[in-house]
Structure formats: C-alpha cells, structure tokens
C-alpha cells in the first residue's frame, strides 16, 4: 500500500467513526420512537420507543410485539388494521392504542413502512410518537440521558464534553480518554484539560471553544496534546456543539495520529532523497544522450560517405566497361591506319620508279577498304562515347529531363555489358511498352545498375555459366511504369526477408558485398523517383525486384535528392534476393503498382 493511501485511510477513520457515532446518537436520541420488527417480533428499537412503553434498554429486543398490547384481541385487531394497509400501499399512518409494561393505555401516532418495499419478509420500520404528552415527555427525557451517558462512557473513541454553564472550567472524560492519555480517573475526572496541563498550546483550546459556541463544527484538526507522563502526541480533534435551553454542550473526540505524522515526515524525507536521485540521474542521462547524439551524427556522416563511394564505384564499373568496349573499334582503327600508312609509302615508291594503272587501281581499292573500316569503327566508337557521355552525365547528376525509358535502359545495358560478361551471366531485356518519362535518368540508372550487380553477386555462384538476368518493363495504369530485374538463382532465405533494405546488411561481407547497394536502390526509388520497390522470391528459384515509378516524378523530390535519401524504414537491405512466387519466366510479370 502506498504511503498516500495509508494517510487517506488514517484521515478517513476519524470521519467514519464520527459519522457512525452521530448516526448512532441520532438513532439513540431521536424523540420519536423507532422500531424494527420482523414476523411481529422486535428486532431493534431506540430509547424513545422503549421510553414510550416503559421498558428498559434492550429489554424489548427479540420479544413479540404482543408485549405492547393489553390483550390478545387488541394485538390481533391492530394487526388486522395495519398489515393490510402495508400490503396494499407499503405504508401505514394512523393513531393506535397500546399499553405500557404496567398495562396502562398509551396512544401513539404511528407511521409504518416495509424495510424493503420489494421484500416484506425483511420486516417493517415503525415511527411512534407518544401523544400522552406529560408522561411520554418525562420518560423520553430520562431514557435519553441514560443512553447518552452509557454511549459516552463505553465509546472506544476518546471523548470529552464540557458545558458553557460553568465557563468550560470542568470537563467530563470517558474511559477511552483515560486509557489513551494515562490520567487517573479518580483525580482527573471533572478537571478541564487546561487544569490538567493537557494542551501544549492553551490558546488553541480557547480558540476552538469560541468556534464551538458559534455553532461551528470542527473536523479532524491537528493539535499537540500532552499525556500524563509528559509525552507530547499529535492528535486529530473533532467537535460538535449542542445548544440547550440554558447552556451549550460541546463534545470533543480525540484520535492519536502521532505515528501517522512520523510516517508523513519519513515520506517527505524519502521524496526529497528521490528527487535528488532523479535530478542526478537526469543529468547523467542528458550527458549520455548528448554523447549518443554526437555518435549518431558521426555514423550518419560515415554512412553518407560510404553510400557516395558506392555510387562512384558503380560509375567506375561503367567507365571500365565502356573502355573495354572502345578498345575494339579503336584498335581496329589503329590497325587500319597503320596498314593504310604502309600502302601510302609503297604507293609513293611506285610513283618515283614509274606508276602502272594496276598499281593505281590496287591502291584505290585498299584506300576504300581502309576508309570503310575506319568509318565503321570510328562511328562505332563515337556511338559508344555518345551513349557513355549521356550515361555519365546522368549518373553524376540529378538533372531532371524528358527521356525514353527504352533508350535509357539500352544505354545503361551497353555500359554494363562487359561487367555482365565477366560474370558468365547472360543479360536479356524485353521492353513490352516504351514510356516517355519526365524524371531523373541518372538516379534511375543507378537503381538499375545496383539491381543488376546485386543479381550477379548474390543470385549466382561465382563461375556459374547458366545464369540469366532478365529485365522487363510494362506500364501500370496511365501514370506509372514498372521496371523488373529478375534472376533465376538461389533466391533469398526467409530469415533475411525483413532486412532487405537495411544499410550494411549483407551475406557477402568481405566477398564483394558492401550492404549498401539495395539501401541505395530503396532510397532513390522512394525518394527522388517517388515510387515503390517490391521483392518477390522463393528460396532456390530466384528473385524479382520490381520498381514502380510515376511517369512524372514529384516536383517536391528534387530538393530532397542528394545521391541517397534518408532511409524511411519501409523495408530492409538485400543481401541475397527474394524469389518470385510461382514459376519463373524470362518475360517479367509486373507487380501491382503503388505510385506515390
């Protein structure tokens, strides 16, 4: 139990005790006779009722109501009059004739009702007023005083009363008060608390008596009182005043709350200690939080640098691939130029010694062949350089422009062809429907590059020759397009499915996997491109990654994109791949679109 609950209970105890005492006093001192009966037997009655019939306290309880009548006939006649009315109306009002214990007739004004209206078996409650004024008034007063004295003396609560008739110079104490404060009844009874030295602050007594004279009730006010042995105790005081014809009677009750006060003090001290500990702990937590914030900022900067490195590594792969592709046409051009130069030297020598028509025709044929070879290879190199230039510009910037999705994919695949060839994988693509986009081709190329590299690294074992990577597109609705990269390799274990797009999560750490590739894919797709990314995989059957993006990228995303947007926690980071559900086919089936 909490200390507060204990304090509330301790405070409520005097109030409950006072209310019980007041209710008991009301019942005991009521001028009207109150009777509770069941089966025409007396269950309980108050002193006023007993006074009406001349019975002593508790003598009537349990007796048959026959004792209230002079004869059996009178008992039966009153019953026949009262109980039908109670049964019909639940109440009886009227004057009835009884007799007291000595057989003398008494007329009473009676009000009767059932204890419970819906259960007459619980009995009835009777209110009786003796209309035999002289005798009834005398008996009621005598019995009331007797009951008050008994109630006062036998109360378990320390009590005292004092009268204004002698200026409150004398006080009557009950047995419980003497037991609590340790005074001797023989020498202390009748002496005031001021005379006994009970009050630590005597002015408090005078102040409370003045308030009682004004009719003010005092409830649970704390004061310090002194016991007979000198111990000072904290006491909760309550009082009620009763105005009579020639005097005012003030009744006090006392409840020792010393232990409660000590407990309150302990609670206050404990609260102060707890507040001090909380303050120290809060300061420590603030310091730790500051350190964690700085550490998090450092880690975020390191993550951004690693992501940027990942992007540059992808661009480096493109450069290597294009350099490999340019090597063949340029090498052919060098060979052709060298051969042509040799033929020019031979032709010059023939001119010096004498030129024949056949020599001239042969030289012209060789020249045409050389120029044709040079034209074709230089054109091929120019095409590669032009495409690479556009890819490089797109990859290194987030410039927004209108472009053809099929053209952009073709340019990227040409640049990636050497990388795919080294992996012993084959790359196929099927553009079911071309689309014109107003978006960011650079970020889109980065997404496609990372997906293909992810399929090569995680989808197939190194050296596997049967690997195939299929790329397909299709329109989704009127405003979105889906791009799918599918492999037919090992797939992704279920335990990895919830970590696909988390940064730095990879199963190929130290084997070429950085754990950032699909993190970049997710952030670019959901960030600058304004789309969604989905994975479909069955372990052992491959995986399909589908990105669905709007044909017109959201304008608000332009300012957000800085190479990699912040991770929004919608997915995890891929270390393997998630296989598609159902049979894998080279032609990509698009996942349902959810354009932003």
**Shape field:** elongated
What is the radius of gyration computed over CA atoms, rounded to a whole number of angstroms? Answer: 54 Å
Class derived from helix and strand content: alpha+beta
Q: Count every beta strand, where a strand is a DSSP E run of 2 or more residues.
A: 18
* Count of helical regions: 13
Major sheet attributes: 6 strands, antiparallel
Q: Strands across the major sheet, in which order? A: 8-7-6-11-10-9
Q: Cα distance, first to last residue?
A: 55 Å
Portion of residues within helices: 40-55%
If you average the pLDDT, what whole number results?
78
* Uncertain ranges: 556-596
Describe the structure.
The chain has 13 helices and 18 strands. It is an alpha+beta fold and 596 residues long. The strands form four sheets. The protein has a six-stranded antiparallel β-sheet with strand order 8-7-6-11-10-9, sandwiched between helices. It has a five-stranded antiparallel β-sheet with strand order 2-1-5-4-3. Strand 6 (159-163) and strand 7 (170-173) form a beta hairpin. Helix 2 packs across helix 4 (133-154). It is elongated, with a radius of gyration of 54 Å. The two termini are 55 Å apart. 32% of the residues are buried.
């Amino acid at each position: 139990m909490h200390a507060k609950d204990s304090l509330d209970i301790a405070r409520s105890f005097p109030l409950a005790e006072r209310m019980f005492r007041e209710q008991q006093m009301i019942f005991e001192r009521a001028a009207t006779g109150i009777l509770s009966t069941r089966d025409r037997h007396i269950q309980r009655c108050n002193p006023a009722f007993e006074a009406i019939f001349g019975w002593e306290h508790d003598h009537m309880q349990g007796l048959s109501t026959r004792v209230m009548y002079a004869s059996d006939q009178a008992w039966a006649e009153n019953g026949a009059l009262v109980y039908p009315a109670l049964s019909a109306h639940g109440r009886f009002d009227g004057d009835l004739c009884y007799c007291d214990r000595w057989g003398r007739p008494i007329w009473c004004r009676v009000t009767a009702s059932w204890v419970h209206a819906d259960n007459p078996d619980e009995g009835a409650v009777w209110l009786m007023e003796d209309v035999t004024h002289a005798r009834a008034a005398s008996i009621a007063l005598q019995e009331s005083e007797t009951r008050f004295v008994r109630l006062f003396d036998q109360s378990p609560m320390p009590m005292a009363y004092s009268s204004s008739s002698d200026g409150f110079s004398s006080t009557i104490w009950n047995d419980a008060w003497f037991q609590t404060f340790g005074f001797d009844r023989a020498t202390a009874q009748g002496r005031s608390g001021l005379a006994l030295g009970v009050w630590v602050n005597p002015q408090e007594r005078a102040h409370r008596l003045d308030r009682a004279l004004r009719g003010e009730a005092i409830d649970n006010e704390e004061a310090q009182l002194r016991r007979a042995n000198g111990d000072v105790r904290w006491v909760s005081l309550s009082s009620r005043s009763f105005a009579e014809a020639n005097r005012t009677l003030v009744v006090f009750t006392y409840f020792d709350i010393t232990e409660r006060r000590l407990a309150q003090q302990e609670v206050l001290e404990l609260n102060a200690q707890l507040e001090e500990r909380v303050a120290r702990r809060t300061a420590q937590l603030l310091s730790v939080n500051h350190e964690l914030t700085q550490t998090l900022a450092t880690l975020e900067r390191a993550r951004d640098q690693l992501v940027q490195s990942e992007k540059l590594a992808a661009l480096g792969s493109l450069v290597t691939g294009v350099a490999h592709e340019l090597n063949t046409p340029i090498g052919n051009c060098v060979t052709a130029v060298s051969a042509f130069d040799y033929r020019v030297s031979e032709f010059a020598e023939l001119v010096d010694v004498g030129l024949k028509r056949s020599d001239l025709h042969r030289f012209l044929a060789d020249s045409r062949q050389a120029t044709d070879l040079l034209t074709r290879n230089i054109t091929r190199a120019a095409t590669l350089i032009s495409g690479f230039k556009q890819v490089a510009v797109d990859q290194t910037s987030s410039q927004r422009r209108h472009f053809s999705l099929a053209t952009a994919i073709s340019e990227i695949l040409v640049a990636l062809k050497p990388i795919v060839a080294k992996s012993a994988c084959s790359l196929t693509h099927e553009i079911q429907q071309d689309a014109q986009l107003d978006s960011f081709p650079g970020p889109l190329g980065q997404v496609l590059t990372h997906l293909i590299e992810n399929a090569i690294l995680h989808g197939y074992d190194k050296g596997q020759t049967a690997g195939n990577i299929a790329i397909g597109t299709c329109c989704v609705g009127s405003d979105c397009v889906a791009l799918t990269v599918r492999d037919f390799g090992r797939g992704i274990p279920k335990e990895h499915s919830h970590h696909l797009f988390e940064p730095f999560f990879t199963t190929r750490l130290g084997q070429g996997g950085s754990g950032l590739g699909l993190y970049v894919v997710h952030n670019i797709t959901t960030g600058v491109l304004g789309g969604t990314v989905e994975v479909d995989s069955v372990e052992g059957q491959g995986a399909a990654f589908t990105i669905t993006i709007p044909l017109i990228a959201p304008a608000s995303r332009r300012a957000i994109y800085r190479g990699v947007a912040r991770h929004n926690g919608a997915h995890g980071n891929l270390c393997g791949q998630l296989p598609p559900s159902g049979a894998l086919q080279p032609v990509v089936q698009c996942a349902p679109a959810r354009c932003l």
